[in-house]
Design goal:
alpha/beta; Rossmann fold; 3 domains; 20 helices; 47% helix; globular; Alpha-ketoacid_DH_E1_comp; metal-binding; EC 1.2.4.4; membrane; branched-chain 2-oxo acid dehydrogenase activity
Length: 598
């Protein structure tokens, strides 16, 4: 968290002090009448090896003025002037120099050239061409396939665990394993990931263990989110992976901000974010693309176009030729790739990362794939799509099977390796589930931690409401609430006139010896109550019954002593008096000797 706060402060510092608002306004006025070196639309092609634009220099602390000039020129990038045969003049607008004509025409809704989908392996795992074939080592290919199998196995077992009622919710990535693993393989650990909820493979590639996955799903105290996050919403600060965001597409504009901070820090890294085709219907998607293009942020957008936004088909979401063309509309270099071809996805993301960093520009990748599993455990996809279609993509179009065939033909994999891998992964997942189930749940007090140093009044009110609920219905909580929270609730119940330890500590200067006695009695009474609860909740705890029998006899003595001591406290507070040499002296200086009935 501190890392992101520091980056945000750096951004604000540069925008406010290094760049200067007045200098930006002055530069904008100067640039409105002159547009030099306009960006050509031809620079934004979907060609794999197209790097026509000059790589911009990295921002440094000593180049504020140069950055302002370059930034404004980028914002006011002139549109390409297309010379007409009969007219060579151009109109000078703030948006750029444009050619004009007296013939009215409209741009067609259908692009003149259809976007081509990039792939290198056919459905049977054979290379389509030997030209420009991605160079992948044996070690990399084997790890990619191993993680695809691990993701597939993990999804199957965790999905079954949810159906058994052992976890509350799950969503699989079945059929989209290549879009999970291949992008992660093409990136470095310095690149920052902002995933959606269907990219656990990215974390798996970076070293997130099965135990860490299970801890999050079972919401135990070993979970990094302490059980407060929705299921399958993983995250890891050490692996540079943001916690998954439940609201659709909200991570996209956030990724632009992260990428811009990387740009300002001169890091040789980029931000990478994922979304589905349904996410492109959200306003955040369009805001993020425009934001990234204007700010020239080194961010790679990867859209998984699986044809369905839960139950809404693509035909009811948009009329454009896929998602890639949307990037061109915002001035972003884009491409379309076969999302079930692991090698094609790997090469596309690797090239996109290179362009994003060296040219300081955003890239949009549309990965065409298919969601074989249901949207989540709350969904039955057979209600809106035929079963035959699902089985066809599961068997004939599986990205795992396709990549395995290619690896086997290279002599890098065997049937023995396959059997050993699947047995090993299944054992790891099952063992992780057993450990996660046995691990204690987080204390309910964790619901209010890790955000505020001092809780605000509304959270304090919520905390007290939880305490009251547990006190009223203890039979509903014993198996789920840790002992630590029981102690907190029982101490709250035994407190008198809302005196807690913090308040007592604050009175120590005024009351000295009395506060020590009160704390002792307070602690003993709380202990008695705790022992009572523990004894009643455990049949086998005969010791607690015996202990409680003897302690209960002394309970009235403790209460009597506490009552008398608190009378002194109340008199001190309510009457607003201080202790003088001649007895009790009120605030007006009059000597008083009230009789305290002991």
């Amino acid at each position: 968290m501190a890392m992101w706060i520091t980056r945000s402060r750096n951004i604000a510092y540069h925008l406010k002090t290094k760049i200067g608002l007045m200098e930006i306004l002055n530069q904008r006025c100067l640039s409105s009448s002159s547009y030099s070196n306009p960006l050509s639309a031809a620079n934004y092609t979907t060609g794999k090896n197209c790097r026509t634009s000059t790589s911009p220099p990295f921002l440094s602390h000593d180049s504020a003025a140069q950055f302002v000039t370059r930034r404004i020129k980028s914002v006011n990038a002139a549109k390409q002037v297309v010379d007409r045969q009969d007219q060579n003049q151009a109109l000078d607008f703030l948006g750029g120099n444009v050619a004009f004509t007296s013939d009215l025409s409209f741009i067609s809704e259908v692009p003149e050239k259809k976007v081509h989908c990039y792939r290198v392996l056919d459905d049977d795992g054979y290379p389509i061409t030997s030209n420009n074939f991605p160079q992948v080592s044996k070690e990399l290919a084997v790890k990619m396939y191993s993680d695809m199998v691990a993701l597939q196995t993990m999804d199957t077992i965790f999905y079954e665990a949810q159906r058994q009622g052992r976890i509350c919710f799950y969503a699989t990535a079945t059929g989209e394993e290549a879009v999970n693993i291949a992008p992660a393989a093409a990136l470095t650990l310095d690149d920052i990931i902002l995933p959606q909820y269907r990219e656990p493979g990215v974390l798996l590639w970076r070293g997130f263990t099965m135990q860490e996955f299970a801890n999050q799903l079972f919401t135990n105290k070993a979970d990094y989110g302490k059980g407060r996050q929705m299921h399958i919403h993983y995250g890891s600060n050490k692996l540079n992976c943001f916690t998954m965001s439940a609201p659709i597409a909200t991570q996209l504009p956030q990724a632009v901000g992260v990428a811009y901070s990387l740009k300002m820090e001169n890091n040789n890294a980029c931000a990478v974010t994922f979304c589905g085709d349904g996410g492109t219907s959200e306003g955040d998607f369009h805001a993020a693309l425009n934001f990234a293009a204007v700010m020239e942020a080194p961010v790679v957008f990867i859209c998984r176009n699986n044809g369905w936004a839960i139950s809404t088909p693509s035909s009811e979401q948009f009329r454009s030729d896929g998602i890639a063309v949307k990037g061109q509309a915002y001035g972003i270099r884009s491409t379309q790739v076969d999302g079930n071809d692991a090698l094609a996805v790997y090469e596309a993301v690797r090239e996109a990362r290179h362009m994003a960093i060296t040219e300081q520009r955003p890239i949009l990748i549309e990965a065409l794939t298919y969601r074989v599993g249901h949207h989540s455990t709350s969904d039955d996809s057979t209600k809106y799509r035929p079963v035959d279609e699902i089985e066809y993509w599961r068997n004939a179009k599986s990205p795992v099977t396709r990549f395995r065939k290619w690896v086997e033909r290279n002599g890098w994999w065997s049937e023995t390796d396959e059997s050993e891998l699947r047995t090993k992964v299944r054992h790891q997942v099952m063992q992780a589930i057993q450990v996660a189930e046995r691990t204690e749940k987080p204390s309910l007090t964790e619901m209010f931690t890790d955000v505020y140093d001092t809780l605000p009044s509304n959270l304090l009110e919520q905390e007290m409401s939880i305490r009251e609920a547990i006190k009223r219905h203890p039979q509903d909580y014993p198996l789920d609430v840790p002992l630590a929270f029981w102690c907190m609730c029982l101490q709250a119940e035994t407190s008198v006139i809302n005196l807690n330890f913090r308040q007592l500590e604050g009175l120590k200067e005024s009351f000295g010896f009395f506060i020590l006695i009160i704390q002792i009695v307070y602690f003993v009474k709380s202990s008695v109550y705790i022992m009572k609860k523990l004894a009643l909740s455990s049949i086998c705890s005969l010791f607690f019954f015996i202990f409680y029998f003897f302690i209960e006899k002394l309970k009235f003595l403790y209460l009597w002593l506490l009552e008398k001591l608190l009378i002194i406290v109340i008199a001190r507070e309510v009457l607003k008096v201080r202790f003088g040499e001649d007895g009790w002296v009120d605030k007006d200086g009059c000597s008083q000797k009230p009789k305290l009935m002991m």
